[in-house]
Amino acid sequence: MSTIDENSLRKIFDSSFDEIFVTDSQGVVLLVNSACERLYDIPAAQLIGKRVNELEQEGVFTPSVTPLVLKEKKRVTIIQETRTGRKIIVTGNPVFDAKGKVVFIVYNSRDITELLTAGLELESETKAASKALSDLSYISLECEEEKPISCSTKMKEILSIAERIARVDSAVLILGESGVGKEVVARYIHNHSYRNGQAFVPINCSAIPEQLLESELFGYEGGAFTGARKQGKKGLLELANGGTVFFDEIAELPLNLQAKLLRVIQSQRLVRVGGTSQIRLDVRIMSATNDDLAKLVKQKKFRDDLYYRINVIPVEIPPLRERKEDIYPLVMHFLSRFNKKYRTEKRITKEAMDLLIGYDWPGNVREVGNMVERVAAMTIEDDILAKDLPEKLLTKGTFDQGTVFVHEIMPLKQAVASVEKQLMLRAYKESKSTYAIAERLGISQSSAVRKLNKYFGDVKERLG
User: Per 3-state DSSP, what percentage of the chain is helix, strand, and coil (rounded to 5)?
Assistant: First the structure.
């Protein structure tokens, strides 16, 4: 069997028209082929040993894909712009060691400048990157479709409504507290509509600086202002053409831009900043807020004409505390995602689950995901016990003390024991003394000790 020597391997490496770029887990450049000279106008040797964040700061390319690869621990594709004005599609692939840690990142980059200039579609493997836009960097990954968890009657009704309104193109206003999943429902509507093959562009109105918001929404012509690109730039609305645009936190949109957005919605045309020609627009408008827009209209902080334009079909998502049937499947969903991502086998015990179901979740679904990941990451053993949960789950006012939650049928004797165990655990955590526990539960101190040992073994070792 023939082998390839190092010199031949290097020639093959350099013969690739696409750039090949290799860094370690810290983002230090280890290898790069000669294609980089065409893209960056820098000799390959000058890149070796540099960190990608340094190269980004120096303007060699922007944005860097490395932080996304390290965060997601999976293949990530974005579009970059180089110092020479080239547009390149970059895919970063993590390489793992035997313990599942990222040791190298291999990047493949392809110049797509001419394709974009000509207005041609990118190859199939680049479509996700060209259509997806982030709130802050404005170019990011296409988010994975995540179907809303809908075990409760309330959420099932909402998804049923979502499927019905997906058949029409009317504007939708999604209401609900922060973290209830407004964007997930908006994506669900988009994915069930005839526009599902086109872009879904989320725009967080509070995340983009006000001085940049107009040019980012509507785009600009070359030379429209100091620092503008010579060739101009498409805005987020234009990039969403044919698809759906989702205005999150729309109450934060400044009044002057509310007027301009209203004109765009009414005419289905936009004019870029510094431009005069009208661009036809075909997008579905969806918006979301956790504010009372009707109240803001009365206070003259939100335009009434825009309010009626975006509020054709209101959809209100209830907070998690009003649909507790969804907590169990949500916890299991986030735990499954954690196990898959980090190749673990974490499990939540029934006692811990009962506490999670009893919690009020002021941060809603977002808080569930945050807490599950934190607890799973911090727990050494595979079984997540009640004692592993944060103290706030047992703090007065955040736990529903008047209701026992049942998420599965069990023998009555077992159910009584489960409730008794929860009471013992809570009393212990709040009292830290068997005498105080006995007094609070109305039992003798010896009974308190016996029950604690029954459920938790060595109390000092297990709960101390």
Answer: 45, 15, 40
**Which two tokens mark 436?**
């105080």
Neighbouring residues of 379: CB distance < 8 A, sequence distance ≥ 6: 346, 388
CA–CA separation, 258 and 267 (whole Å): 14
Burial pattern 26-38, b for ≥16 Cβ within 10 A else e, equals ebebeebbebbbe
In this prediction the pTM is: 0.58
Mean predicted lDDT score pLDDT of the chain: 82
Q: d(Cα 239, Cα 202) in Å, to the nearest integer?
A: 11
**For residue 110, how far is the Cα from the chain centroid?**
27
User: Angle at the Cα of 427 (from 424 to 431), degrees rounded to 5?
Assistant: 140
Q: What is the pLDDT of residues 45-59, one digit of tens each?
A: 888 898 988 888 888
Q: What is the CA radius of gyration of the chain?
A: 27
- Are 458 and 387 in contact by the 8 Å Cβ rule? The answer is no
Laid out side by side, the sheet with 200-204 consists of 200-204, 244-248, 284-289, 172-175, 313-316
The DSSP bridge pattern shows strands 19-24 and 29-32 to be antiparallel
Q: Does the pLDDT at position 252 exceed 90?
A: yes
Task: Give the span between the Cα atoms of 436 and 428, in whole angstroms.
Answer: 9
Least confident of 8-12, 79-83, 174-178, 429-433: 429-433
Give phi and psi for 277, each to the nearest 5. -80, 145
Compute the distance between CA of residue 203 and CA of residue 200 in angstroms, rounded to an integer. Answer: 10
* SS3 of residue 372 by DSSP: helix
Structure tokens that stand for 163 in this block: 């499927």
Q: Does residue 394 have a pLDDT over 50?
A: yes
